Amino acid sequence: MLERIIELLYKKGYRPFNENDGGVLIRETENIIYVVTLSMFREDMSAQVYENAADRIRFQVATKYKKPISLLNLVATEDGMFDDAAMQFVEELSNVWLVARDTGRIYIFENQPREFDELFSYFEKGLADNRKESTFYLTPVNMAIVAMNIIYFLAVIVMNGGYDAVYDSDIMLRMGALSYETFMAGKWYELVTSLFLHFGFSHLFNNMILLVYAGCQLERIIGKIPYFVLYLSSGLVGNIASLWYYHSIGEYAVSAGASGAIFGVIGALLIVLFMNRSKTSETTPKRLFFLAFFTIYYGMTTIGVDNAAHIGGFICGIIGGFLLSKVSQYGKLKEVS
């Protein structure tokens, strides 16, 4: 929440007063210096401590710039259900706005200034946009990929006389599943076609749930074309890893599924969120890491799951996410398209 407010303040022209302290931002105009302090509410700190700190900041800024000072304290709370300590805090201080992290809103009480450097309406619009961006919604490229997986699954059933076809390795190979022998015989296209085939409804369902959950969020952040390239690249790398692994251990395997590509999406989303500190997102890196760990653990303890493809795709996604984060500035990844 505070990260988003800092981003908005920077866009309005505010800069840190002290390079070593990002909690005090200033904007210099011809006649006045606007000062905004940012902090977390703590019950163990009295209003007098805040007032003393504000007085010191006013003195330091006035000494440096030789202009009148107007100061606002932005104090973040965990939620908008303010307890007695927070209410008393606001009553005892002037120039304080409370920022509730759970609602993403700024609260101004009757004894506080309604406006400061035209920030309130500016924050309201910026935070409203941020709430809209953090809302989960379906994205076109990812949902087209999901649709292709479902259509291909139904096509296998219809074209081969029934549901049992999705469990038949020979039929799946004819439909484009991947094996080392057929790949070396010249069917290189299996690296792609196998990404849209699944062994049974549960295999398809589990993969599509993961893909919708992680893929739509990643596409929204990095854009349509980068998302499609990353998805396909992760799937290809995962399939290549699968070919190498099963050939190296001398085991015959028929591989199919979007898992390698999906793990690439999860790996990229982990890195993008971590490197850009997207704390407003519902999907945190910790949650995604747990999801990836649980899925890999499930694969390692379940017969027939291709963990080589999972790991290969995951590594590709991590590298792709890192590169995307490096070439994009903080807060601008969503503009790539």
Protein described:
It contains 13 helices and six strands. It is α/β, with parallel strands linked by helices and 337 residues long. It has two domains: 133 residues, Trna Endonuclease, Chain: A, domain 1 (3-Layer(aba) Sandwich), CATH 3.40.1350; 196 residues, Rhomboid-like (Rhomboid-like fold). The protein has a six-stranded mixed beta sheet with strand order 1-2-3-4-5-6. A hairpin with a 4-residue loop joins strand 5 and strand 6. Helix 9 packs parallel to helix 11, helix 10 runs antiparallel to helix 13 and helix 11 runs antiparallel to helix 12. The chain is elongated.
Short description:
The protein has 2 domains: 2-134, Trna Endonuclease, Chain: A, domain 1 (3-Layer(aba) Sandwich), CATH 3.40.1350; 140-335, Rhomboid-like fold, CATH 1.20.1540.10. It is 57% helix and 11% strand. It has helices at 2-12, 47-65, 84-92, 119-134, 140-159, 169-174, 180-184, 190-193, 201-222, 224-248, 259-276, 285-300, 307-327, and strands spanning 15-18, 21-28, 33-40, 69-77, 96-100, 105-107.
Please give a handful of descriptors for the protein shown.
337 residues; 2 domains; elongated; 13 helices; Trna Endonuclease, Chain: A, domain 1; alpha/beta; single chain; Rhomboid-like fold; six-stranded mixed sheet
